Amino acid sequence: MTTRRTFIKTLVAIPPALSFRRAWAAPDPSRLALIIGNSAYHDAPLVNPANDAKAVGGLFTQAGFTVDSHLNAKRADMMAAIEKFGAAAKRSETKLVVFYYAGHGAQLDWRNYLLPVDAVVQRQEDMKQRCIDLNLLLGQFSAAKDKTFIIILDACRNNPFGSAYRPEQKGLSQFDAPVGSLLAYATSPGNVASDGDGQNGLYTENLVRELSKHNTRIEDALKRVRLNVRLASHGEQIPWETTSLESDVFIFNEGQKKLSEAEMEKLIEADVTEWARIKSSKKIDDWVGYLRTFPNGRFAEIAQMRLTRLLADVEKQRVEQQQQDTAKADKLAAEKRQEEEKRKQEEQKRLEQERIEREKIRIAEAQRLAAERKQLEEQQLQEQRRRQEEQQRIELKRREEQERLDRERQRIAEAERQAAERKKQEEQRQLAAQERIERERIRVAEEKRLVAERRQFEEQQLQEQRRRQEEQQAAELKRRQEQERLDRERQRIAEAERLAEERRKQEEEQRLAAERKRIEQEKLAQAAAAKPVPTTSAAPSPTPKPVAAAPAGAPMIDIRAGLPVPLLIPPSDNPFSAGRYPLGRIYTIGDFATVRQTDILTGVEERTYTARVTKVDYDEDRVELNNGTIISDLMGNSIKSGPIEFDSPVQFTPAEFQIGKKWTATFRRTQNGQTTNAYYDLQIVKRETITVPAGTFDTFRIEGEGWNTSVSARLEVRFWLVPGLNFGIKREFVTKNKWGRFGSTERHELVALRQQTIQSACLTPGSGMARTLTVKSTCTG
After folding, report:
1. Which of 20, 118, 388, 462 is a plausible cystine mate for 74, CB 3.0–4.6 Å?
2. Domain chopping of the chain, boundaries
3. Considering the domain 557-775 in this protein, what is its CATH number?
4. Which segment of the chain is annotated as a signal peptide (predicted)?
5. What is the sign of the dihedral through the CA atoms of 390, 396, 398 and 401?
6. What is the rounded CA–CA span in Å between residue 780 and residue 722?
7. CATH top-level class for 21-248?
8. Residue 256: band (very low, low, confident or very high) from pLDDT cuts 50, 70, 90
């Protein structure tokens, strides 16, 4: 019988010449694939990577790629294969390059390392010298211009070095995809992936299934893979991708053409129909089905967020059921313990009866001995009493003699004390009489001296008072004269300033009137195209229920000019990535943002307005601001903005922030009875520090371009958002007609914000003031 252990030993024994390998002889030399699968590790062997590599290699061969496959490769073999692969990628005819690796991987100092089967690692330095730095492959790719690169790593198995060495961090490190590339991990950075119980690992099993579907964009396929693996692992393994692809990539190159307008409309209609069917659903299968059918649909980000909430509820129910099962087991164990206790009590009762009988016999014997002891003690007591009476008579006689001597000594001492007391009193009387006579003489002399001094002082005060009165009268006369002169001067200056201010106001009013007239004329001449106005709101709480007030002790955010801005996303320590953050919005009634709106072209401030949360309904996924004037979902996607209404939430806000993330927003917009159709293609382009009236913020910048197909208007939008804040920091909308003339050019900038609740699980104290808070980059929403 062949077991997994004997199978791995057999793989180790296969000579390199017989290893699974295909030459560069596929039909299409413009599409290359390097496949490596390592299973036969000495300290921590794996079962499925070799099978995974065979399955993926077969898939890409079937798709027409030129495939080079290696199983159980040593370091020298991997280095040679990568160098050869890099040289082939630089050829002018090469267009699409795919690298797939299955096996052990590890991270060190933010770099990712792939482990050859002959790697022996006992310390950090060994990893750098004996493993393959993924940057070696990326360096080969960076030298190849105008290519598209796909890197897929199923390399996050646990304990890659056995007991010899354990890395400080698990899994692989996050790495933002360079331009024109896509990086896919079997699980999220810092976590480990399952090797699987079947013929293939959990990730690769789903990867092969989804990539085998024709006419499927690789990004859509990977989203389905992530969904399937997440559900199959009950959330313990969630695949991760980062992309900077500049065009659609299909594994099966069948000359895919861009959808016609009719086909696009049909696809949108199917998307809308499915959304209308499930938008109020509480069933996980409905949202899973939507994401599988429309992985890049107009509601995909919203569906992902709602699925996350439903899965959290299921997990909560599972934990509660587990607690109930544990309680039942504890109850049965308690009943069993009670029965055992009852048996022990009966046994103890029998033993107690035997002990009582033995105790009765012992007591009878003790009573006999006690009677004999009592008789002896009475005899001893009588002798003791006789001796005590004799001693008492002797002691009484001694005390009487002692008392007589004490009384005599006291009488003599009292007589001596009284004589000394009489002598002392006589001396004190004589001394007191002398002191009284001396004090009286001194008092009389002092009174005479004080009377003379008081008379002289009163005469001096009278003279000084007359002199001061004369000086005050002269000074008061001079002050009144000076005050009258100053009053006349102030009246003259005030009159001159009033006349100058009136002239300045008249000139300013004339200038502003001319400027307003010019701006109105320019705007009336432009064709204003339809545009959506997003509102910011909050992400759902893990438990869907209406919120009326902030929970006690929740951290509060207060942002405005003059206050320090909280550090909500710390600078990334990873030099290869800007980090990944959940949306993290939690809405509370009373949250508000004050925003300044200006014209992008002229810089003229048009208005300042405030959006305040007046109602939050988690069951309906609905947030109302300004008493329903503005309505959004819990992610901050617009449903209504003043007179403008949308048929469904406009998917402007992503479920998580990560550079390179792409999605689409397609919607119908109705205003004053007129409905238009529009769409945006959006992407998180970079992490950027910006300054607005409220302060300076570290933000993620989102850019979108689209088209209003009903009025032939080109649409541009830019958002600057901070994870954890319910309102945007800055946003810009630009519309142009088909001739390139500007319609709307709006800029909205945050002036002030107050938010009563932020995910405390996602906060860490920052340095400096106590109000500084930081969202953890590892927090999941």
Report:
1. 118
2. 21-248, 557-775
3. 2.40.360
4. 1-25
5. negative
6. 15
7. alpha beta
8. low
